[in-house]
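We were asked to recover a plausible sequence for a given structure. The inputs and outputs are reproduced exactly as logged, with field labels preserved.

PROBLEM: sequence recovery
POSITIONS: 221
GIVEN STRUCTURE:
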């Protein structure tokens, strides 16, 4: 039984390399593609949920909050801390999370976020995908109504590869999950790289099995 231990360790190591996903919070805007909510209509447009949208790069996504959304513009229907003219997606204070589902996986994504009440709030993001659910990451903000682009950016990155299918936005503060976000930035899947490619995994596995074989022969001699 002891002689099989090195090989067993190799199998466990390969399994952990192949399936682990690592996540990181992003607090500044990154990404190679963008979704502008202005495509859903002018300010005060009620947007039934779920809805479909298209990114600047032609990627499709679906928004859902188990209720209706509404389009607002900072400075025209919204007095907050986004930049004047920002096209916003608002959950109408219905208490539901904003779930943005991508029809093809992404490696990172996020938006500036705000609670729909003056004062301090916390904005959070979580990712869903083939890994299940990521940790929840949060940032703090303060809605002063200054319209000064001080709305905090909250994003998440899958450092292990492009496996994110959903971004979940929530806020707490003046009222639980009365949430608005501005334009959504993201990077299409495949931007990660910490998980070895299948060919690399095969080579690594061959090397580890060979090492186990040499150790076994050494013990026998």
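RECOVERED SEQUENCE:
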């Amino acid at each position: 039984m002891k002689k099989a231990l090195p090989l067993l360790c190799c199998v466990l190591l390969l399994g952990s390399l192949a399936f682990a996903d690592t996540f990181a919070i992003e607090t500044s805007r990154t990404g190679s593609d963008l979704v502008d909510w202005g495509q859903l209509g002018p300010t005060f447009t009620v947007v039934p949920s779920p809805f479909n949208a298209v990114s600047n790069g032609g990627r499709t996504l679906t928004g859902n909050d188990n209720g209706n959304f509404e389009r607002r513009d900072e400075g025209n229907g919204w007095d907050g801390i986004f930049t004047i003219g920002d096209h916003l997606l608002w959950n109408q204070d219905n208490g539901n999370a904003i779930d943005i589902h991508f029809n093809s996986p992404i490696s990172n994504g996020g938006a500036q976020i705000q609670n729909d009440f003056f004062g301090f709030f916390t904005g959070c993001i979580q990712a869903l995908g083939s890994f299940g659910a990521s940790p929840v990451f949060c940032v703090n903000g303060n809605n002063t109504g200054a319209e000064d682009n001080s709305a905090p950016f909250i994003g998440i990155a899958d450092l292990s590869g492009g496996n994110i299918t959903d971004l979940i936005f929530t806020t707490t503060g003046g009222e639980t999950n009365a949430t608005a976000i501005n334009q959504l930035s993201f990077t299409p899947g495949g931007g990660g790289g910490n998980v070895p490619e299948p060919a690399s995994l095969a080579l690594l596995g061959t090397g580890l099995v060979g090492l186990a074989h040499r150790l076994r022969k050494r013990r026998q001699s």
